[in-house]
Amino acid sequence: MLKFALNHMTTPSLTMEQLVSLADELGLVGVELRNDLAHPMFDGATPAVVANQNIPILALAEVKAFNDFSRDTLNAATALMDLAVEAGAPAIALIPKVGGSPVAETDLRAALTGLAPELEMRGLIGLIEPIGFASSSLRFKAEVVNLINELDIGGQFGLIHDTFHHALSGEGEVFPKHTKLVHISGVMNAKMAFTSMGDEDRALVEAGDRLGNVKQISELMRGGYSGPFSFEAFSPDVHALDDPKAALSRSIRFIENSVMAHAA
Predict the structure, then answer these.
(1) 63 and 93 in contact (C-beta within 8 Å)?
(2) pLDDT band at 53, cuts 50/70/90?
(3) Which phi and psi (to 5°) does residue 40 adopt?
(4) 47: which of 97, 102, 122, 222 is 20 to 30 A away, CA to CA?
(5) CA separation for the pair 103, 101 (Å, rounded)
(6) Is residue 61 a contact partner of residue 36, using CB atoms and an 8 Å limit?
(7) On the CB side of 245, how many CA atoms lie within 13 Å of its CA?
(8) What count of other Cβ atoms lies within 10 Å of the Cβ of residue 186?
(9) Is the pLDDT reported for residue 49 higher than 90?
(10) Burial 96-129 (b: 16+ CB within 10 A, else e)
(11) Quick one: 15 exposed, middle or buried, by C-beta within 10 A (0-12, 13-18, 19+)?
């Protein structure tokens, strides 16, 4: 059975309490909280209070440009790790640098080796999300998987498979054994080129989706992935919905029915 979750970006106007309540009403398995919204991550509550919510916090996001590693990056990452521990979240999200000067593979290596002991000490997982934009310094999951295997740090790191970024990157292979979380969103514009797609085009998954969400979800599950599929929609149209519960329910039903039909 498919398990679904909700990233706060999908409903950024909701308070944390409202987000958790919505997830509970929809029967979701967890939520993701963010530090890049207009309001504070915990809405002024202490992380310890958040840890006692009915709905688990799957991850705290995010450390930006984590692979452009420096002392400041390490400090930002450890601060987010400490919040995750207090809030009872098992993971933090690590986002590569997008735009600007290139980032060398040696910098990614330095980031993983620098963050691994900090994560291990706190019992956390660092979720690395390759970004599929052409301007991204880390587009392909294979690069992350190869380095994790080489350094033997699979206990400290995993992948976020983002269906939008997977489609944009053109990467063919999925890595279900290394995937700890999946972000789902859909693009319905039939005429838009993949190279023109941006975050603002990421809506809920429905009929006409250009990203191949059903195929990606099915392939991940066939490969053994059994974790949650978390809605992460950036579209202003989704953010402005009067009834996000109804829209999310429709998307969940569409995905479930489509995945079952795909498997038949």
Answers:
(1) yes
(2) confident
(3) -60, 155
(4) 97
(5) 7
(6) yes
(7) 11
(8) 26
(9) no
(10) bbeeeeebeeebbebbbebbbebbeebebbbbbb
(11) middle
Supply the angle between the helices 105-122 and 71-87 in degrees, to the nearest 10.
Answer: 30
- Kindly tell me if the per-residue pLDDT of 264 is higher than 80: no
Q: What are phi and psi of 205, to 5 degrees?
A: -85, 125
Tokens 């398990």, located at residue: 3
DSSP helix/strand/coil, 183: strand
- Residue 61: the pLDDT is 98
pLDDT of residue 122: 98
pTM of the entire predicted model: 0.97
CA distances 237 to 133, 162, 240, 244, Å, are 22, 20, 5, 11
3-state secondary structure at position 62: strand
Alpha-carbon distances of 162 from 64, 80, 169, 220, 249, rounded to whole Å:
16, 21, 10, 12, 20
Encode pLDDT of 109-126 as tens digits: 999 999 999 999 999 999
